[in-house]
Amino acid sequence: MAAVKSRIFSFNLCTKHKQTMRNFQLFALTFFGIIFFFSCNSAKKVQVTKKPKIDIELLYRVWDVDSIIIGGKGADGVDMGDPQYEFTREGKRIKSYKIPPHSEFETFIIRNDSIHYTGEKTLPSSAIVELTDKRLTLKNGKAVWKLYVKEKDKK
Fold first, then answer.
1. pTM of the predicted model, to two decimals?
2. 61 and 29 in one domain?
């Protein structure tokens, strides 16, 4: 009788072991399948949502200031003396005022859709948020510049 019980116990242990292994294999397969599924989907999302490069040629023209927002407070271009910004292919940003007439310039480079100033003044870099043939929006940690092209100045 003891031999029979021993065989039954042994058989039950072996069956439980096989069932446990099957459960573990099913769990591992499911776990790695889910990881693989999400890693493939997240790679697709990155490719789809990647923003296109800006057309830098649209930058090189004279821009009138629509408004500048500094620290949450905005001012219209007219209230600031009608400043204009001209960006040249030679890497100069020329800031001029209609009233009183004077101008100043800074040198810059474009890198990673941002304008980085390289002149003697330590101006913060500005991200190009929007650049179309009519609108330019620049933004850094301190200010947002909203510029536009007057129809007669459009090249």
1. 0.62
2. no
H/E element holding 129? strand 126-131
Question: Do residue 70 and residue 135 come from a single domain?
Answer: yes
Helices (H), the chain: 2-49
What whole-number distance in Å separates Cα of residue 81 and Cα of residue 68?
A: 12
Within 10 angstroms of residue 83's Cβ, the number of other Cβ atoms is: 19
Helix (H) or strand (E) holding 126: strand 126-131
Which of the two residues, 44 and 140, has the higher pLDDT score?
140
pLDDT, one tens digit per residue, over 22-79 is 777 877 778 777 777 777 655 444 444 445 578 999 999 999 999 999 988 989 988 8
Question: Are residues 61 and 129 both part of a single domain?
Answer: yes
9 and 37 both lie in a single domain: yes
pLDDT in tens, 88-128: 999 999 999 877 677 888 999 999 899 999 988 878 999 99
Q: Which amino acid is at 111?
A: R
Instruction: Measure the CA–CA gap between 8 and 12, rounded to whole angstroms.
Output: 6
- Number of structural domains the chain divides into: 2
d(CA 88, CA 78): 23
